[in-house]
Amino acid sequence: MKRTRLAAKKNVLRETVSAAGETNVFNRETQSTSADNVLPSSKSSESSTEPSRLRTRLKLENLTVEKTTISTDTSVNEKKSTKYLQDKKKLRGVVDLEMMKNELKQLEDPPATPIEIELSSTRLSYDFFDVPCETLAQNMLGKILVRQLDNGTILKGRIVETESYLGVVDKASHTYQHRITPRNAPMYMPPGTIYVYLTYGMYHCFNVSSQESGAYVTIRALEPTVGLEYMELLRNICVIEGRKEKKMINNIKSLESHELCNGPSEICTALDIDDETFRDANIVTCHGLWIENNSSVEKLNIVATPQIENEPSKFKKPSKQLLRFYILGNSCISQRNVLYEKDACAT
Q1: Which residues span the membrane (predicted)?
Q2: Which of 11, 40, 124, 154 lies deepest, with the highest CB count within 10 Å?
Q3: What is the tally of structural domains in the chain?
Q4: pTM for the whole structure
């Protein structure tokens, strides 16, 4: 009985062990199967993560490239900005002579046409006017006064009479005792400055400054040489409505050549010279008005007399200063003085 029970227990134990073994084997197979099933999934996950890692790496590389580019551009921009600031500082602190020369060339006003070049080739320079007043008045005699109108018309006349005003020491001068007004300011400007003033509200007088402060020369008479018909036309035009309009006079005068410019106001009318057009202009550089050398060489007999205002009369004593000059025998002068003609000197 005992043996039978022991045998039965052994059989049960064997069955239990065998069952446990099969279970273990099944578990192993299941684990291996699950492992096999898991591995492909892990491989697929690894394979799926590889592209994402690649993309991430590419993105990182792109970012690196972009950063490098940005840093490079920034450095370039910084260099440019630094250079700009340096140039800007340089422009503030250093004078560019070449740039200044180019700008000055643009400011120059050279003759625009070959005709103007030819016309201005003989014009008198600054040195001619940079002399004492009496010397300038005498040197002007025989020279040619040229007027170029806005329409291109050229008018010319030979200077035959001048009058000098010595400035601050001359009682007849507008600048006597250093008088300074907006009107006479050009007389204190460099030699050759044009001074045109209005008398009696309707007549102009044309003057040019000389070397001394406040001194000037009045051109009193011309001998017309070019544009006589046009001068006669201008002499028959009057100004109306505050000098802004011009019209022909009712009684047109037929003038002889010696009557066209035989006085200061007649010169300004015949050559259309007014204070608004030539205020503060310099006759050395002015386009519309200048004095040129006379090509014909001739000896001049110059008469020296007192100024018109200071000529002797029964009311005043004769002046010792001979400040008016004219060419002896010329029919275009404003007023002769026979008393002084006998002392005319040849030049």
Answers
A1: none
A2: 124
A3: 1
A4: 0.64
Q: Which residue has the higher pLDDT, 170 or 45?
A: 170
Residue pLDDT, tens place only, 284-314:
999 899 999 998 867 899 999 999 875 544 4
**Locate tokens 């580019």: which residue?**
69
Contacting residues for 109 by C-beta, under 8 A, at least 6 apart? 285, 287
Instruction: Evaluate whether 218 touches 206 at the Cβ level (below 8 Å).
Output: yes
Residues whose CB is less than 8 angstroms from the CB of residue 326 and which lie 6 or more positions away in sequence, other chains included: 141, 160, 161, 162, 220, 221, 302, 303, 305, 333, 336
Q: The domain that contains 248 carries what CATH number?
A: 3.10.300.10
pLDDT tier, 14 (very low <50, low <70, confident <90, very high otherwise): low
In terms of DSSP bridges, do strands 203-209 and 194-199 run parallel, antiparallel, or are they unpaired?
antiparallel
**Res 35: pLDDT:** 43
Domain around 133: 114-298
Angle, CA of 306, 312 and 314, to the nearest 5°: 170
In a domain, 60, yes or no: no
Instruction: Report whether 178 contacts 170 (CB < 8 A).
Output: no
